[in-house]
Prior knowledge:
single chain; 4-stranded mixed sheet; 20 strands; binds magnesium ion
Amino acid sequence: xxxxxxxxxxxxxxxxxxxxxxxxxxxxxxxxxxxxxxxxxxxxxxxxxxxxxxxxxxxxxxxxxxxxxxxxxxxxxxxxxxxxxxxxxxxxxxxxxxxxxxxxxxxxxxxxxxxxxxxxxxxxxxxxxxxxxxxxxxxxxxxxxxxxxxxxxxxxxxxxxxxxxxxxxxxxxxxxxxxxxxxxxxxxxxxxxxxxxxxxxxxxxxxxxxxxxxxxxxxxxxxxxxxxxxxxxxxxxxxxxxxxxxxxxxxxxxxxxxxxxxxxxxxxxxxxxxxxxxxxxxxxxxxxxxxxxxxxxxxxxxxxxxxxxxxxxxxxxxxxxxxxxxxxxxxxxxxxxxxxxxxxxxxxxxxxxxxxxxxxxxxxxxxxxxxxxxxxxxxxxxxxxxxxxxxxxxxxxxxxxxxxxxxxxxxxxxxxxxxxxxxxxx
Length: 426
Ligand code: GDP
Ligand code: IMO
Ligand code: MG
């Protein structure tokens, strides 16, 4: 079997958690391949709403292994909170969760450096979630990091202190004030908890699963436009959020990648700083935020809202080799008379249909096509056959533009509010 990948095509928060949960019954293993607790993946079912940060979104199903891959960065404090909350809900986490020995650990000082670095950037700040993601990946590529497997070594404490000393120099440079003694007890408690989890060589585990005919789904975090190579740099996260991240973050060879399921909202959002060509800083944007409850699942920050951006989506589809699409939050557009779709950008009077290199400083004006809204409450629909003609026309128009089938249309946050256009997927 090949590994299917599910990932975001915009700036994150597309609804990855919901769809992974919906698709999990089809799979034996769900693996996260990058990012860390900057992610907030929301699942809703049976009246329960749950937000996961590190743990893959298959955790609520029995008989499925959830693997946190080597490409993920783990904050022991946050992971402990997540696990405690799940255990309180009766989820048998220990049976279903495995952590890669090679995943890197976020130290309290990584979080402090994240805050110091954002403060120093002032107006140019990235708008980081301040979870220590950037500094931890810097230590990984700088070859200074501490990995999950290191927590078991007799000299772990020395390694930890050595890295903390380095971090103290950086914090001194930033003249950043902090009290590490307040942060360390929770860190050490988290480390002890991780030592009691199933810690594995996840690349071997995943490849054995593939070879024995098991179905594996790789779950992305963030979105393609936040990818460190292909996103709106420098306003990005510090990992490869794209399909290639599956190969490096789980140890999956490129020829073992199967379907790439790309997920996007029927409009667009972004949280944090950086370019957003179709952003609506007006009452229409406000309406999208209100109707879509667009507030960050990790930080609670209001998300910036705007219309769907086809040049950006086409780029994301190209980079990831997307084979199927899921369109999320169609219901958020229920009350709009007309819906706008950005088909091109206008740059200095020239019409282009791709994202320019210097999207940060280039003035990019969206060119829109208007389509008719459906003015129907979609949240109660049980079948794709019942969707209004205008929504069907919108979906078919997007398919023609994007050249990829839309196999799922999501019409509400609950598991059940998922309309299948192609029964092959689920
Ligand atoms: P993720 O990071 O990609 O998993 O997405 P988030 O959980 O951060 O944000 C998606 C938000 O939209 C969550 O609050 C979901 O419960 C919600 N959601 C997902 N799908 C739909 C949908 O089709 N309609 C509506 N109204 N909300 C949805
Ligand atoms: P999920 O998986 C939306 C954004 C931050 C900031 C930038 C860098 O829930 O879709 P970082 O903390 O990584 O240094 O922040 O990336 N960001 C996200 N935006 N959804 C996410 O994850 C995000 N993770 C990071 O807001 O702009
Ligand atoms: Mg999210």
